[in-house]
Amino acid sequence: MGRNRKITEINEGAGAYRKNPKRRRSRYGEPKRIEPVGDPPERWLRGAAQAPGAAADEKCAIWREFVDQAAIELKINHRITLEMLCELVYSFRHGYAKAVDRDQILKFAGKLGLGDLVNQSRHATGKAPVRVAEWGEFVG
To answer: What is the pTM of this model?
Structure first.
């Protein structure tokens, strides 16, 4: 089984297209993710306005917490994953999450570049700067 396909932004950041320009041409027509993830879902905002301090208010706080902590810039197509993650984390923090819910939390957090450093490194773009040696280092 082959590896999962990397998104275009990661390939661009890693310099894959400079090395092999044909890779970019094969991605022609790939959908673009332009819009940011935005505010929490409208039903949470309405619920927070009607009953401050309730579950909806806490879910909005969890949403903002994850948007701030994500290793990648979250876009509009991440909304459903982020919404499910917030719901699961809310249930986890209140003590009624099951073992399968905890596994889903780790899975969704990994998809968004949250959690441990391994997940964050999977979403890192770019390479470490290359040090250019001075001529004097080669000539004794």
So the answer is: 0.63
